[in-house]
Specification:
Layout (H helix, E strand, L loop, with lengths): L6 E8 L4 H14 L6 E5 L2 E8 L2 E8 L4 E7 L8 H8 L4 E4 L14 H10 L17 E4 L8 E8 L4 E8 L2 E8 L3 E2 L3
Antiparallel strand pairs: 1-5, 1-6, 2-5, 3-4, 7-8, 7-11, 8-9, 9-10
Length: 189
C-alpha cells in the first residue's frame, strides 16, 4: 500500500441494539487479523442529550441511527475498499451488510465528505482541535454552547486528549457535573 492512504467512511448495517457489540467485534477482528492499515476507526453514531426532569438535569446518550455503525476504511482502489477489508467487515458477527451495497457481493458507496462532517459535528467530533487551552482545575469558566450556554462553571478535570473539561454547573441550587469541549467554554470572564 502506498504512503498516501485515502480514507473514506462507510455505513454498516447491524441488528438494532447490537451496535456496540459490532463495534467491539470489528475492532477486535481488525487487531487479530492485522487489518490496522485498512480499517481505521469504528464509531456508533451517538450524541449526548440533556433533559430536565423533576428540576434535575439528566444526561443520556442517544443512538442517532439505531442499527448502523460507521467504519473508516482505506480506499486505495478507485475509491473502493479492498476485498480483504470488505470481507473482514462483512463477516463480523452482528453485521448484516453495508448501506449502499446492491447485494450479490457488490461493494458499497462511501459517505460524501459533507455527510461525514455533519455526522461528526452531531457527535461532537469536529476536526477543529484546540492545541493548547490555558486553564486549570478550580478555574471558573463561562459556557458558550450547549444546554448550559451562558452559565458559569468550575473546572474539575481537564482531558487534553479528548479536548474536553469536566466542570460543575449550579442548576436549581445543586452542583451538576458536565463535560464540555474546549470550543464550548470561554476563559475570559
Amino acid at each position: 500500500m502506498s504512503d498516501s492512504i485515502e480514507k473514506a467512511w462507510f455505513v454498516v448495517h447491524t441488528y438494532s441494539g447490537y451496535e456496540h457489540k459490532v463495534q467491539t467485534n470489528l475492532e477486535s477482528r481488525t487487531q487479530t487479523m492485522g487489518m490496522n492499515n485498512q480499517i481505521f476507526r469504528v464509531l456508533v453514531p451517538e450524541q449526548e442529550v440533556s433533559t430536565v426532569e423533576d428540576g434535575e438535569v439528566k444526561t443520556s446518550i442517544e443512538n442517532d441511527f439505531p442499527g448502523y455503525v460507521l467504519v473508516e476504511m482505506a480506499t486505495p482502489q478507485d475509491g473502493n475498499m479492498t476485498d480483504e477489508a470488505w470481507y473482514v467487515v462483512r463477516n463480523t458477527p452482528g453485521v448484516t451488510g453495508f448501506l449502499g451495497s446492491h447485494g450479490a457481493g457488490s461493494k458499497p458507496n462511501s459517505l460524501l465528505p459533507e455527510e461525514v462532517e455533519l455526522l461528526m459535528k452531531r457527535m461532537g467530533m469536529t476536526g477543529e482541535k484546540v492545541v493548547d487551552l490555558d486553564v486549570e482545575v478550580g478555574q471558573t469558566i463561562k459556557i458558550v454552547a450547549g444546554p448550559f450556554n451562558g452559565m458559569e462553571g468550575v473546572i474539575r478535570a481537564i482531558d487534553p486528549e479528548k479536548q474536553e473539561v469536566e466542570a460543575t454547573v449550579e442548576v436549581f441550587g445543586r452542583e451538576t457535573p458536565t463535560e464540555l469541549g474546549f470550543n464550548d467554554i470561554d476563559t475570559n470572564l
